[in-house]
Amino acid sequence: MKTTILSVIALFVSVNLVAQNKNVQQEVKTTVTTIKDSDGERTIVKKEKTNEVQNIELKDAESKTLNKEMKDTPVNVTSTTEVTVDGVTRTVDVDRSAYYLLNGQKYQIATDKTGYTMTQPNSKRTALLRKTSNDTYLYINRNKVSVGYFDKDGNLVLETYDDRNDKMVLEKFELVKE
Question: Is pTM beyond 0.70 here?
Fold first, then answer.
C-alpha cells in the first residue's frame, strides 16, 4: 500500500515537471574569417549564441474553454559570443572588432587570443588591447601604455598620462559605421 501511494505521488510530480511553462528559442550564428598577412594565415571562428525565453501565461486561466489565448509576456534575451583564434577559445561580452578613425587615420581592431590587436591598413600590428578586471583596457604600444574604454557610442577612448605637463591626455578613436 505504501509503495502504491508513493508511486502515484511520483507519477504526479514527474508529469508536472514535464509540463513546459516557457517558450524557448535558441539561435547560433557562426562566422569564420580567414586572415592572410605577412605572418601567415589565421582563422578566426566567432559563435554568437542567442537564447530567448518567454514565460507562458494565459489570459483567462480560470475559464472552462478548451482553447485559451496566451497573454503577452516579456521576452528575456541573453547572448554570448565565443571567439576562437588559433585554437584558443574565449568568451567575449561585446565584440569590439571594427574600424576606428583618429586624426584622419583609419585603424582596425580585431580579436586575438587574449584581447584585441590594433593595426593600420597595409601595416603590421600597431598596438595591443588587453582587458582589465574593471572593464577597461590596457593599450600597449612601443612608445606608450594607456588606459582605454569604450564609450556608449562604441568609440575607443584612451587616457594617457603626460608627465611633462602633469595631466591626463584623452584620445578618441571614433567608430566607423559603414
Answer: no
Residue 118 burial (CB count, 10 A): 20
CA atoms within 13 A on the CB side of 14: 6
Tell me the C-alpha distance between 87 and 45, whole Å. 9
Distance CA 131, CA 139 (A): 9
The pLDDT tens digits for 102-161 are 888 888 888 887 888 898 877 777 889 998 888 789 999 888 899 999 888 889 999 999
